[in-house]
Task: structure prediction
Amino acid sequence: MEAYLVDWLHLLIRFLHVLTAIAWIGASFYFVWLDNSLEKPPQWKIDKGIKGDLWAVHGGGFYEVAKYQNTPEQLPKTLHWFKWEAYSTWLTGMALLIVVFYVGAQSYLIDSTKADLTSWQAIGIGVGSLLAGFAVYEGACRTPLIKHNLAFGLVMLALVTFMAWALSQVLGDRAAYIHVGALIGTCMAGNVFNTIMPSQRVMVEAAAKGETPDPYYGNKAKLRSTHNNYATIPVLFIMLSNHFPMTYGHEYGWLILGALALVGAWARHFFNLRHHGKVKPMIIVSALVAFFAIAFIAMPSNVLSSGKSADLQAGTQASALPRVTDVQALNIVGQHCTACHSATPTDDIFKVSPGGVMFDNLDQIKAMKDRILARAVHTHDMPFMNKTGMTEEEREVLGRWLEQ
Result:
């Protein structure tokens, strides 16, 4: 009953996290597009202090949007702020991190093949990485490096990649990725809380007094907003990465994360330039080429060789290997897989077969042979956190049987 209720709680928090993230990222994308798409207004608007405007049509109506150079002549009674999307996304994300990875530390956070940690030690490493990473980011934002966008971005990419490497040495692969995502999300939410909102409050207070706000605050808020804009695609990739073990489960998963984060930010740059009327399709082309290059370079050697297995079996190299029997394969699957993937799971965490996938008989196993080959043989993502201690020899034997 407890595990069943925890699953429903997990579903609720994850749903809220995705929902609020859509609202936050949608607002971020919209306002960056809006700011970059403003055009020079007619003279009568310039005389009113309007810096740029645009017209749009949506939902059966016309919209006129204008941005002031400083402040309007009089503040409106209702002024809309955008902050709760960011705060709600961060709060639900942290709740999800706690419910899944911290409450279930022994199953989701700790990989005993990497480090013999207690639950509290692993949680301490996770929380410490968030605090340390955020402190480094905030410290960098207070140095002259902040004035050099490209250099700053590369340094932050190096920080993210290093954090992924460091965490992957002591925590489970999924947990390492998720903590990097949580770090990026924390920095993004921190930008809203520590810089963007305080700067905007200063601007509103000055406008309410009839004073001209110091442009320093507006520029500082816009810069942090731009940081958030470029970070959205990398953090979205990490949110989705749990479905793709060839990324986090790779020997160099930390490097794959850094490379794909760079590709994502580069692709985002195309759209930011396009909003300014600068269309550079080679950015998208190069991003796609880089993506497929990463996929090829990261391909495990056993995947490259698997396509040749049928020919090898006919040759002298394959004849030296004994044929794997169905009984041998069933024994391996029964020992390492059916604790979770069964009509009656015996695992201490999974009380219902994950994804509805069951391996109770030979037909069920054969029906999922491609997925088993990918998850248990090629990427070593299964068994989950290798709780059952599946050996390399067993993976090799199972792989041979699946390819027979």
User: Anything to note?
Assistant: The mean pLDDT is 88. Strands lie at 50-58, 61-68. The first helix runs from residue 2 to 37.
